[in-house]
Here is the input.
Amino acid sequence: MFNFFAKDESRSGNRFLLDGADHNHIKNVLRMRPDDTFLVSHNGVSHLCRLVEFTDQQTVAEIIEENYQNTELPVAITLFQGLPKSDKMEWIIQKTVELGVAEIVPVEMTNCVVKLEDKKKKAKQTRWQAIAEAAAKQSKRTVIPTVTEPMSYKAAVAMASEMDLILVPYENARGMVATKEAVEQIKSGMKVGIFIGPEGGFDPKEIDAVTDVGGQTVSLGSRILRTETAAITALSLCMLHVEMNGENQ
Ligand code: SAH
Here is the structure.
């Protein structure tokens, strides 16, 4: 079923009034008809809706059921991703949004090959946010994860220091028992930060800085993973732990 994100002000009583791109998509691309059903996510809540009619500028939909489905993880995971090369960031955003990430923070690290000029950061962030929105729609999320502008490592560590748990996948960490124990600390309601190094990996000083604020280095197995594989593996591990332990029931 199609899923649309409604702006705050688009709710009117028992109805949603959708305009702009969503209206155009429903009417002219999907060519929906009255009585067709679709989902509307509004303030993090999913609604099953029935199309009532089209006006010139709006699609009018009536709510059939509120809280129709909860697709959000009960844990807020922030991915602190070392800026990767070329379009890898886009791929990481798309996949981690599917896996349930709450927020993505691109981080400038010592060994990053890519250095973004300040004036390009805003444009990149806008594009990345649009990718997050498309992925959220596709995977029927009820919340659109935020992608921040690229941040310095220092600022990222300061932000993570406020969180309940910080996991740092690091190829020099040993032992999957430690990884299992670290992941098992994740409980409903927690804020969890995950740090992934760029292609060149973490600088040892960066590992020191994040462990100083409570970051726990963990292994993701005996092989070296590419940065994008590491991000997806870490997210999958946390998502599956949370879902398998019924934290989302
Ligand atoms: N510096 C390394 C690899 C960097 S891989 C080298 O060039 O040989 C990019 C990032 O993926 C790492 O910084 C780490 O966060 C993560 N990563 C890759 N393989 C991993 C593993 N086996 N265990 C934990 N983290 C891993």
Remarks:
- Residues 169-171, 196-197, 200-202, 219-221, 223-225, 227, 230 surround S-adenosyl-L-homocysteine (CB under 6 Å).
- The domain at 3-68 is CATH 2.40.240.20 (Ribosomal Protein L25; Chain P).
